[in-house]
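Email to the structure team, subject: Sulfotransferase model.

Hi all, the expression group asked for a predicted structure before they design truncation constructs. Nothing fancy, just the tokens so they can compare against earlier work. One-line instruction: predict Sulfotransferase, return tokens.
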Amino acid sequence: MWSCSSAFQRVASLMFMAPKLKPQRPHQIAETGAEQLVKKARTMTTESSMKDAFSQYADYLNNFNEKRERVVKASRDITMNSKKVIFQVHRLSKDNKDEVLEKAGKDLEAVREQHFARLMKELQGTDFWKLRRAYSPGVQEYVEAATFYKFCVSGTLSTLDEINSTLLPLSDPSLEALQINILDYILGLADLTGELMRMAIGRISDGEVEFAQRICQFVRQIHRELLLVVPQMDDSYDMKSKMEVMLQSVIKIENACFSVHVRGSEYIPLLGDDAPTSFLLGETRDLISSLPSEKGWLVSQIYQFQGRWHTEALLQGILTCQKHFEAKDSDIILVTNPKSGTTWLKSLLFALINRHKFPVSSGDHPLLVTNPHLLVPFMEGVYYESPDFDFSLLPFPRLMNTHISHLSLPESVKSSSCKIVYCCRNPKDMFVSLWHFGKKLAPQETADYPIEKAVEAFCQGKFIGGPFWDHVLEYWYESRKNPNKVLFVTYEELKKQTGDMVKRMAEFLGCGFTAEEEVSEIVKLCSFESLSSLEVNRQGKLPNGIEINAFFRKGETGGWRDTLSESLADAIDRTTEEKFGSSGLKFAC
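Reply from the structure team: attached below.
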């Protein structure tokens, strides 16, 4: 590949090769008109050759960069569609094996014939090794999908030659065929072990312990063989880091198989759901049963984990999230307490970061036809419903929401450069909103639960996600310690200065507004009046069964006065003052 420096070196060589004029002596100064014309023509020739050289190199580099962009796009398409194949294979069970594998096989073939063919068309006939880093991620993901599929079909590993042979029919016979190299094959193979680990845990949950044990032996063998290869690799930096992750996958499978072998098949349904994915392993059941618990409001029981109170379902989602979620530096995570402006913030952030992809003025914006909770996934809720959900399938930058405390966030979120937008609300307004939300969702369960008892539990921190004050202070201190990672905003600020706060969030996320852009269009689209009037936010249910209209009540500040007596409001105020103390954090009423 021509670099800018090499291009300048070639230009410099041409300059040295150009005719040079000898130094003039005094008696040579007087020149005839003809001699001056010859000198001028010679100079013009040199300048012309330099311009031609620069023009050629500029054309080459421009064409090369355009090709690189097309190759990157093709690689991303291969990655995305290969992940879909992997996700399809994860649906495999003893009852649907033929159906699932047939669909996965067709999807894998489509990846080759549509997306891989486009990549090969770009690269054939060129020095494609120069662009390896541009297409390597897609190739590795394809290797992972192809080997994962082959293992589930036959229990064997696809070799590099077997994979490359499937690509040969896509090549132009007159040109050098693009073949996957050994390094990309091994890197893809390393990622395969992570998928096999997830499949093994899932099969144990379904009672297919023998299949999980076969996976364990297979992953052990891959790890053992690669331990012999990696030290001999020259370009092995990525591989060495992947070997550490692979070892963790082996350990997780071995621990799960050992646990079942020693304790027997200890599974319990989660909240009465008999779906295979909602069964807990014995070790998780033991963990939950050992936790402090209280009779909950809205639910029969809440459990204290890492200092926070959760329902059993959300606790399972949090545990899965902690184990499996891998944050990316480009991720945007919205963190809130329940009923603290989550729906509004989801809408604002979605419209904000996608404003060029989905112009607000277009008339067909996704927020006009889709509920915000379907556009921005709730992480622990998704992991509870679908433990094998692959968040890497989300479009970049990924926008997600959680109620998880900072202490309990997955380690990858804390260690990455992802952005966290935290929004909190005056605790009295938040409590009242949650109170009405609960009465709408579970009228029978809350009918005999007096509000005085609910306020008492709230002040003690014993409500879903509580204590409220600890949750807020963790992110408050983190925002002061690391302001480039955590942006702390309040619901009251957003209500009072929505446009300014949207601009502030945009700057924080690195997608600030230009002078010509109109912020008011996003503010209007995402206003309570606009969203609550849409049919998509008034009818139907979310996948978790909650009525969609339950998320839109009043959307105002100071509404607690209509529900709380003076004594109950004072109880929350006293607790707030006691908990926040000298933190410097104040709430507007």
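Residues 1-30, 263-281 have pLDDT under 50 and may be disordered. Strands lie at 268-269, 279-280, 293-294, 302-305, 308-310, 332-336, 399-402, 419-424, 486-490. Ping us if the truncation boundaries need rechecking.
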